[in-house]
Amino acid sequence: MAKIFCIANQKGGVGKTTTTVNLSAGLAKIGQRVLLVDLDPQGNATMGAGINKAKLRASVYEVLLGMSDVAAARLASEAGKFDVLPANRELAGAEVEMVELENREKRLKDALALVAAEYDFILIDCPPALSMLTLNGLCAAHGVIIPMQCEYYALEGLSDLVNTIKKVHANLNPELSIIGLLRVMFDPRMTLSQQVSTQLEQHFGDKVFKSIIPRNVRLAEAPSYGMPGVNFDVASKGAQAYIAFGTELVERIKSM
Ligand code: ATP
Ligand code: MG
Predict the structure, then answer these.
(1) Which of 22, 24, 105, 141 is the most buried (most CB within 10 A)?
(2) CA nearest neighbour of 205 among 169, 178, 173, 232
């Protein structure tokens, strides 16, 4: 049965999508069966997996509104060797349209339950907001992976996210926990990066993953080729870091 993880941080541009796409590809490389769920109307994870978001038969939008199911809407990422439940701008409407539906925060959970046996991991790329879409992700998941940039403002807003996760845990999804904080876009030449990184370890101890994702231009270039960085240039430092992170994650959940 799949372990379901949200990649979440309500801050914009902190590396959620890059992490979701490359962790999916990294896990696929070590033999794991992965479904990536794009829960962001920007559709960046869909495009990063090499799928044209402008030409979708069905997407996560139809799935949330009960007009399609995951089995019909998912597509294969040829480049990344994982499956994708894609998204595009249409998803922005779901937020409002779901208001009238019963159990609206559990629509994704119910939809994923039907395919969970086919995967080892389901990774959900959340939008940069604590919205109804993110709430659907948190209700569907066993855990949250929080990408953090090691910069001065990194910790700001983290308490809002942690409080939201606590509330969801208490009221809606008792299975939910924080799996860990992942340091991304790390620049070893910057003293500040080192300092914030050390602070994170002191504050959060074991909850900080050992793997660190460096700032690496190959990861940033890969989406324009419709490929995860892990497949675009497997020898690059960024790709190797995400593959190592995949291995660390597999180990970590064995002990959960
Ligand atoms: P949003 O909140 O808009 O969804 P996000 O949190 O998903 O953003 P990304 O889209 O993954 O963030 O990353 C933001 C930008 O930083 C992108 O241009 C991406 O290519 C770049 N980026 C992410 N990680 C790295 C990295 N390790 N090295 C270099 N560039 C990176
Ligand atoms: Mg994103």
Answers:
(1) 24
(2) 178
